[in-house]
Amino acid sequence: MSGIESVLQENRLFPPSPATVSAATISGQAAYDALCAEAEKDYAGYWARLARENLLWQKPFTQTLDESNAPFFKWFADGELNVSYNCLERNLQNGNADKVAIIFESDGGEVNKVTYRQLYEKVCQLANGIKSLGYQKGERAIIYMPMSVEAICAMHACARLGLTHSVVFGGFSAKSLQERIVDAHATLVICADEQVRGGKNIPLKPAVEEAFAMGGCEHVRKVIVYQRTGGKVNWDANRDVWMHELAANQATDCAPTWVDAEHPLFILYTSGSTGKPKGVQHSSAGYLLHAMLTMKWTFDIQPNDVFWCTADVGWVTGHTYIAYGPLAVGATQIVFEGIPTYPHSGRFWEMIAKHKASIFYTAPTAIRSLIKASESTPASHPRNYDLSSLRLMGSVGEPINPEAWMWYYENVGGKRCPIVDTWWQTETGGHMITPLPGVHGLKPGSCTMPFPGIAAAIVDETGNDVEKGKGGFLVIKKPWPSMIRAIWGDPERFVKSYYPADFNGKYYLAGDGANRDLDGYFWIMGRIDDVLNVSGHRLGTMEIESALVANPLVAEAAVVGRPDDLTGEAVVAFVVLKQSRPNAEEGQKIAKELREWVGKEIGPIAKPKEIRFGENLPKTRSGKIMRRLLRDLAKGAEITQDISTLENPAILDQLKVAQ
Ligand code: 6R9
């Protein structure tokens, strides 16, 4: 495993302060060890206890883990519950009815606070509206909306009725939307007229219409439209319904539809190493259990906290740590519509001060861009804001480099606030490896230790444990409640992707390389497959390649990542055109065109940062593209590897230059 055996040099250790330890829900090493020991001794019993203590069951489960059809595991399968009930009625019953659930701040800075009772009523009215349109448990709804209270309501209205939702990030193109509508066989689409980001209105509904025009979406019966801006939209009176009109005269109560523990709460599409995006299917009970436990143990949520996760509901982080986790534990949370740099790059710090956020959860890419901004625009430096309300901070989405960690720790957290660097994935549902603030000493850049009960390990190609200090494949050795249940419609791909036979078929293969230091701390080294991580967003190289070759000008394309100071990784595409290799000027024009094309095919996040043209791609005599070579070329590294098997060495010179 070359490249991930790097010996780590990070020796700084930040132990938790005695005050943090004594105040924390999981307080001290002994408390953590006791939980791990309990899970070790009676794995199913441990999760069963937690599921009984944390979830509200309509019908209690008697069976904990069903492994009879492994790796299609089932948890708490004969129990019945409703996820939205667990997040909303729970809070009406336990004295939180008038507590603020959501502090919403719009892109332009307007603030709207919603209590648990108001949220419950809004969700119920929308759910009743959806019911009145004839929708029933088991159908799928696509949600294509901006960050808003309404998007969270849409997710909960679906959950309340037993509809499986699939949120599509508002930055995805019409084509990506169409693929998801078709793959999920959705019958309902919930969207907005437009979204507002960085002071600009960006249309959403037209993308829905474009998606329909591509065909294959005939199963969609209705489109519910949230009026965000009042911008002009086309209207199909038979199909389109305004959300506010649909909800207006509905009852403010809506009895939940009880579902099985394993009922699919949602499908979320994510990039894999091959082909089209995978529809990651999650359960109801196991998923919610882990969302709650991690809110309680990782974020150590307390009644007076103001929690802020800056993710978008279009990603898994926005599902678990905005739409479900915080509500299930009765937290007050900030939901932000906009972007960190508008109207100025002190916006995050300004909002923390304004709303007195106490827990702040963001991504390394945001931190890096704000470091850069605070250097060029000193007024946006966190030191200019009162961040004394913060007590805990988190990081997610990609490895955080120690420099960014230190800056975050010193300048945002004032050296007082522990940082929980949480490693997890769309497929895992919630945190898997993370410090607990009252337990673990922190090392900048390490996600530290497994969450209690999570059997994380590092193995070699044959599935054997590697020694501490050595690199290998990150695996989870035992099934856990919030794990992916299936790839929607493709059980074979599920087994092949996550339980491949070469790792003896028993362990969940995460797709990340990792290293464990001599203290047992985990260090994530990044993906080992053809998945890139650009600004914390997962992109499959194959997906971008297929988008490129779908362009009439392109004969062949190979996409690799190269390290980028700001975005972690950047997309570099090597392209062979059907016409001859373009000169510099022509090349620039075509590169621009291809970038736009990829933006249309997938979404702006997938646009290659750089496109290089060659008469061919470097291939072995057997015709395989030499990707490792391309990676070296992309980062401008000297070519040291053996190129004797290369069919056409002359083209290397062409591919060295960016156009
Ligand atoms: C939650 C989320 C998952 C991939 C994962 C890994 C990377 C996420 C990380 C991290 C190092 C962390 N990743 N958190 N790497 N340290 N704290 O991001 O889900 O979009 O599915 O991405 O992100 O490579 O495999 P998802």
Automatic annotation (TrEMBL):
Q: What class of enzyme is it?
A: ligase
Tell me which residues make up the AMP-binding enzyme C-terminal domain. Answer: 543-624
Q: By its UniProt entry, which InterPro entries does this protein fall under?
A: Ac_CoA_lig, ACAS_N, AMP-bd_C, AMP-bd_C_sf, AMP-binding_CS, AMP-dep_synth/lig_dom, ANL_N_sf
Domain Acetyl-coenzyme A synthetase N-terminal, by residue range, is 32-87
Its UniProt entry gives the catalysed reaction(s) as: acetate + ATP + CoA = acetyl-CoA + AMP + diphosphate
Q: Which terms in the Gene Ontology molecular function aspect does this entry carry?
A: acetate-CoA ligase activity; AMP binding; ATP binding; metal ion binding
Q: Which GO terms describe its cellular component?
A: cytosol
Entry-annotated residues carrying N6-acetyllysine:
624
Ribonucleoprotein among keywords: no
Matches recorded under Pfam families: ACAS_N, AMP-binding, AMP-binding_C
Q: Which cofactor does it need?
A: Mg(2+)
Which Enzyme Commission number(s) are on file for it? 6.2.1.1
Q: What does the entry report about post-translational modification of this chain?
A: Acetylated. Deacetylation by the SIR2-homolog deacetylase activates the enzyme.
Q: What does this protein do?
A: Catalyzes the conversion of acetate into acetyl-CoA (AcCoA), an essential intermediate at the junction of anabolic and catabolic pathways. AcsA undergoes a two-step reaction. In the first half reaction, AcsA combines acetate with ATP to form acetyl-adenylate (AcAMP) intermediate. In the second half reaction, it can then transfer the acetyl group from AcAMP to the sulfhydryl group of CoA, forming the product AcCoA.
Name this protein carries in UniProt:
Acetyl-coenzyme A synthetase
Question: Gene name on record?
Answer: acs
